[in-house]
Design goal:
The protein is an alpha+beta fold. It is 30% helix and 28% strand. The protein has 4 helices and 9 strands; from the N terminus they run E-E-E-E-H-E-H-E-E-H-E-E-H.
Length: 243
């Protein structure tokens, strides 16, 4: 049976991802990432100060912040900096855990890395796109440190990516846009490495329950999709880097 086409892609194909790094002249690392119609600006800041809970540790710390601009969606939203927003804090913790999983923070002892991810345009998948953008901004940051001679070794230990996977009816779909996400009866955010190792899985059933086979199928599909996305993203970062 022929699978329905959505925006020129089949059910298991992620939206196209394009990235441009070094877009913010004031930040030591930055990236603008577009995934379908979702757009994220990510910047990296290095603070010469250990996080309070990391004092005396042999490693530095990485933390992430996430925000959605007022007109990232169809209707204006109040600026999140003024709100106690549980969703935003949940996403920030996910971003921090995901990005820390890819960094060797021994290179940043007594220092703190801040990765700020701002949603410029939202059309589904903003948290997974933010992980991709954050990874690209860290790549830009680390490349600049090496070019300046401040580091001799590459501190990104793993290439970390993410994708959303949904169950619409009985169909597994990769990288849902907003219209698909609204009708999905289950969705997962799969964070994984470029070689297929799982970092974190977030999500579950929206309506009713999932079978074991459905859950395992969604997870396997998401892991393969992350590998495809990261292969493409790595190529783009390498071309930009001039390798």
């Amino acid at each position: 049976m022929t699978q329905p086409i959505r925006e020129g892609r089949d059910l298991l194909t992620p939206r196209p991802v394009t990235v441009k790094r070094g877009v913010n002249p004031h930040a030591p690392g930055s990236a603008h990432l577009i995934m379908g119609r979702t757009e994220i600006l990510a910047t990296v800041t290095l603070e010469e100060k250990a996080a309070p809970h990391m004092r005396g540790s042999k490693e530095g710390w990485l933390t992430a912040e996430y925000s959605m601009l007022p007109r990232a969606t169809n209707d204006r939203q109040a600026r999140e900096r003024n709100l106690q927003n549980g969703r935003r804090h949940e996403i920030q913790r996910l971003l921090g855990r995901a990005l820390r999983a890819g960094m060797d923070l021994r290179y940043f002892r007594n220092q703190t890395l801040y990765v700020d991810c701002d949603v410029l345009v939202a059309d589904g998948g903003t948290r997974v796109a933010s992980i991709l953008a954050g990874h690209a901004a860290l790549h830009d940051f680390c490349d600049r440190l090496i070019q300046k001679g401040r580091l001799t070794d590459w501190p990104i230990s793993r290439n970390i990516g993410a994708v959303s996977v949904g169950l619409v009816g009985s169909e597994i779909r990769v990288d849902l846009d907003y219209a698909e996400d609204k009708v999905a009866r289950a969705d997962l955010n799969v964070v994984a490495t470029s070689d297929g190792l799982i970092v974190e899985v977030q999500g579950g059933a929206e309506e009713g329950v999932l079978t074991h086979d459905e859950y395992v199928g969604m997870l396997a599909t998401g892991t393969r999709a992350v590998q495809d996305i990261m292969a493409d993203l790595t190529r783009q970062l390498s071309v930009i880097q001039g390798m």
